[in-house]
Design a protein that fits this description.
heterodimer; A: globular; B: mainly alpha; two-stranded antiparallel sheet; 70% helix; globular
């Protein structure tokens, strides 16, 4: 039974409520890092990790610090600080453990702090009522995982298309951002089809 | 004259959305109706002007290597103020904008202006820069919302436009946002290439 609920959350965050293509969160990295497939993959993996960790920590902070002391209005400030610290930590660990991966990710790592999808997943975990739920911690972590996977999926699809668009014959004024947006619109239209799925 | 040019550059020449290409998430997500766009503009401009003012005040004694966390804390403080005010005085708007109010914290326009402009310039020019950037953001957002609301909901400011017409729902959902902004950017490129 529990597995079924968790699987439902996972599938709905990846496909039905895809963070990028249907909720429009995390568009800056989606547009900025989707030029090449391998950097898109690296960015996606880093975002998945940060999202799961952020869901874990923000849930604990909300439930055991903000609610007991009745300072829920500080959630925005505390969440963004947690995410910034987490990104810094991830950066330091990756630099120590695998310098080659650190080189490959480069400037994308610090940029995750201002990825609105990460703060978005932390806030949505609270709004989805996971706080009062019996296995809320697990549910919010699964939501974080799904959000990260959905983000990676959208990023990879976009990068694959954009690598081909480079070679296509596009009118001069449409090159760059305009054609990217129109492509994203077509992708979003395709993802709209998932909204008919019942879980 | 100098003040005027700092103010107006945000509207066209350095428009944060159309030219610099930042702050996309709120732009696309909130432009479902003109009234949402208006309140979002008000909230963002308030945060932008306020954080630019404080950042330019403290720029002298903030150590360089920890400036980012300090800027983010300043911005988050202003966002919390907006959150509480909207919740108290405009609960309907607060509900409609949802998580996009707290997400103003990670709007790249605000951190971008703090880092690029306010941390290097005086108080008055920083505030004018914030106001101008906010206005440029708002005008783009409103234009987008105008197209999307009239095509996607067949409504404008809550009034039905053409009675009996079936609106195309895709325009109010995510695809419409991407298409409209893509076409707007295209139009902007056409105008700029004719000029130069």
């Amino acid at each position: 039974m529990e597995i079924k609920i968790l699987l439902g959350i996972l599938i709905s965050t990846i496909f039905i409520n895809n963070y990028v293509l249907s909720q429009m969160l995390g568009l800056c990295p989606f547009l900025g890092v989707s030029k090449k497939l391998d950097s898109a993959l690296g960015m996606g993996l880093a975002v998945i990790f940060v999202m799961v960790m952020a869901s874990f920590f923000t849930y604990l902070i909300y439930k055991f610090i903000l609610i007991p002391y009745d300072i829920v209005y500080l959630s925005t400030i505390s969440f963004i600080l947690v995410i910034a610290a987490l990104v810094q930590l991830v950066e330091m660990v990756i630099q120590k453990v695998s310098p080659s991966l650190y080189q490959a990710l480069g400037i994308f790592l610090p940029l995750i702090t201002t990825n609105c999808a990460v703060l978005g997943v932390a806030l949505l975990n609270i709004n989805s009522g996971f706080i009062t739920s019996k296995m809320g911690l697990l549910e919010s972590m699964v939501q974080g995982l799904g959000a990260g996977l959905g983000f990676t999926l959208a990023l990879l699809l976009m990068a694959g298309i954009r690598e081909r668009l480079e070679l296509a014959d596009i009118p001069k004024n449409l090159k760059g951002l305009p054609i990217t947006f129109i492509t994203a619109g077509l992708l979003a239209l395709a993802f709209l089809g998932f909204s008919g799925m019942k879980i | 004259m100098n003040y005027w040019s700092e103010f107006k550059k945000g509207i066209w020449a350095k428009n944060p959305i159309l030219v610099i290409g930042i702050g996309m998430c709120p732009t696309l997500a909130v432009s479902t109706s003109v009234s949402n766009a208006f309140w979002m503009t008000l909230a963002t401009t308030f945060v932008l002007t306020g954080s630019n003012l404080i950042v330019s005040l403290v720029k002298g004694f903030v150590p360089d290597h920890i400036r980012m966390p300090i800027f983010i804390s300043i911005i988050a403080t202003f966002v919390t103020v907006v959150e509480l005010m909207l919740n108290a005085f405009q609960p309907g708007v607060f509900k409609a904008l949802g998580i996009f109010i707290p997400l103003i914290v990670v709007n790249c326009i605000i951190l971008g202006r703090a880092e690029e402009f306010a941390s290097k310039n005086g108080i008055i020019t920083s505030m004018l820069d914030g106001l101008g950037m906010g206005l440029g953001f708002g005008l783009t957002l409103s234009a987008l919302a105008f197209v999307r609301e009239s095509l996607g909901a067949n409504k404008l400011f809550g009034l039905t436009l053409i009675p009996g017409m079936q609106p195309s729902t895709a325009m109010i959902l995510a695809p419409g946002a991407f298409f409209t902004l893509g076409l707007m950017l295209w139009g902007m490129n056409v105008i700029n290439s004719r000029k130069g």
